[in-house]
Amino acid sequence: MNRRCFIPSLLLVFLITLFTAQACGPDFYPDVFMHKMRPDNSTHFTEGKLGILLPTYPRADLTVAFRYLNGGSLSATEQKAYQPIYEYADPEWGKNWDATHPKDEKQSDPAELWSAARAKFAAPAPKVETNATTYVKLPNGATFHNDYSNCLGGALYTAVETLQSRAKTWGESSPDLADWLKGQDAVFANCATSASILPSAAPPGSSALLKADRAYQIAAAQFYSGQFDDARNAFETIARDSGSPWQGVARYLVARCLVRQAFSSKPGIDSDQMATFDSDLMKQAVTYLESLLKEKPQGVSRQSILDLLDLARLRSDPMAQLHLLSATLAGPKTDPRYNTHLSDLTWYLNAKLDQLPLREDTDLNVTATDSSKPFSLPTQAQKDAVFSKTYNDLADLRSSALLVDWLITFQSPAKEAKDHAIAEWKKSPQLYWLLAAITKATGKDAEAPDLVTAAGQVKPDSPAWESITYHRLRLLLALGKAQEARTLLDQTLPQIKAGGRDSSLSLFLGLRMRASANLNEALAYAPRKVLIRSSQQQSALNECLDVMKNPQRKYDCKKEVNPLQFSDDAAAFFNAQAPLSTLVEVAGSDALPMQLRQSVAMMAWVRAVLLHDDIAASKLFQLLPMKLQQQAGNGTGFHALVTLLRNPGLRPYLDAGVQRNYSYDFVESYRDNWWCGDWQNGNGTGSILLETNSVSFLTPAQHAEWDGEAAKLAQMNNAIVYLGGLMIDYAQSHPGDPDVPESLYLVLRMMRYECSNVEWRDETASRTEQQKEDDIRKVASRLLRQRYPASLWTKKAAPFASGG
């Protein structure tokens, strides 16, 4: 995440976000190497080529997958029901929007179609506004407004068809048609207003058809204006009139009145983010609709009755309806109403679950229960407890159906979910339980060897083969069987590449990197294809290149970025496992593309400077961009440190994806500059997958070397405190150095444009750090004013200086 905003500690709060979220500026998202919210190819997915199923997939995706895991398949009609969910940063989002929203929306807007049809027979009228608003007062006194579609598209389409039919029957200039239009205008006037506007009675001498239509129009106006008892009575009267063309439709609309009245009788939203309703009225609607299914009224499709019945059943008896929905969706038989059932199931589960800390990418943050105590990050034990409680609390919901149980279990990171998946697999070795169990298992689980053995029995033509093989290999590595994993990976990778799923390939290459026997072999698998470049580092590069359109602005920014970059796990290896000597070796290896080699060299050089390792810095020096070589010179002393101050894109770690050092000398507008105090806690190098942060080839000596370096780097805090403190010390001991004024100016400039990432931090540590920064600012400002009053750097620093 990007941006830093401090959150006050007032009470115990679990803040839940299922997607990356930012505040205090534009939204930036990590560069994407694998799609966590959708499959790479939706067509392949619905055909049963599932790739690697992730617990972060939406429940609709996992429901589609379950049919194949259960031995069934989706028909061509069923496949059309699935619509992938695209994140905003995904380029496919725009394509999907264009595909589902025609450029000329007037051609598909029911209100526009009605206006166009009406204009052929009468003077233009205002466009029908189909949405209405109700205001609900909550028990605590707060009021919220609820916007809903009052007049649905079907009503407008029916009006168009009826208008055209009546024009043929009565004639385009007939008084009956003119009066019919007035009545219909009155009906639609109720769509967006709380006032009741009823059509007047049909004129004396009107045709029987107009009188029948008028009775129907009055009932419809009562329905849209919320007079549900009157509307229901009116529709029941019409339903008894054998001469009315609306007799059959009126029967159905009686049920619509009951359902709408059930919701309006108890307006509000319950704790599950569902609209509240009157259960007695909803049950009446169910009984009435069940009778309609037997009667088969004319003019009403069985599909319409079933859709409304499903809606009412899902409210009045949700557990029974969930069981029914799950059984039809799970297969293996096809479901003629798959689209509706998939929509109903996922709507209900999303309403129940999306506000809960269920899915493993939920972001949990905790503030103190006592406002006098400082803010603190949640411990892993606290997180585990939250996930476990959520999973256990959902026991009743899980018991409603096998599919529901599997969906919740597959998505939950709770230990209880893993135990349940393993127990179900042992009891009934179905493919879907094997997948759930092996996805959650770690090398420490006693069942891990048996799961690996079972995974080996899954054939390549199985829809689960790619997922299960991935986790089979992951467990082999976790069990210390790197050689076996390496051999199997080399056999498997050609098939994964042929599948054309970039997300799967990225994950398998990550395993191959971990299984490598030596460094150069691992480097061959470290670069991965970036699927979406949406990071703040990419934004900084874009901004730099845009600024450089001005010929007077000169920056050393990359004009082209290699499509292969370091993924999360590769960046984690360089940042948190590889000692400096290994980084030097990486920078000199031909196994990486030159662009990535130079990025490693720049990061490693920063570490060498911070660790005062002149030997390593000297080896890396020749691999730096010429501009940095000219600024820094050899060694790790004062001038090297000043070079870090001059170049805000230099920092002691690599980013996952596009590197900030691709625009290293550019001050980025949204303050992704230098490094924050929390840089050692992640910076995008985490993974939602298990055990992806270790390689098999590092020696004990290399691990020990890194441990020593990590302990030193851990003391260096953020760039301002560490570099600023060094510059103050140097300035006080070397007042005659002609470069000191510039260094003090650069410290103050760094404070102005410092790193500003969102971070959940200990408030005591935050206040201590802020005090150190304030002290450095005051001293730097005072030294400039008192010792170098005539310096150009003192004048340039004036906007950044304060106090002292």
What does this structure look like?
Residues 1-24 and 682-692 have low confidence and may be disordered. Helix 20 runs antiparallel to helix 21 and helix 22 (482-499) packs antiparallel against helix 23. A hairpin with a 5-residue loop joins strand 1 and strand 2. The protein is globular. The strands form two sheets. A two-stranded antiparallel sheet has the order 1-2. It has helices spanning 42-46, 59-69, 76-79, 91-100, 110-118, 153-170, 175-188, 208-224, 228-239, 247-265, 279-295, 302-316, 318-330, 338-353, 380-393, 395-398, 402-411, 415-427, 431-440, 448-455, 465-478, 482-499, 502-515, 519-525, 536-547, 568-576, 580-587, 594-610, 614-621, 626-632, 638-646, 700-713, 719-733, 740-752, 763-787, 792-797, and strands at residues 131-137, 143-149, 527-529, 564-566. With 804 residues, it is mainly alpha-helical. Helix content is 54%, strand content 2%. The chain contains 36 helices and four strands. The two termini are 34 Å apart. It has a domain at 569-797.
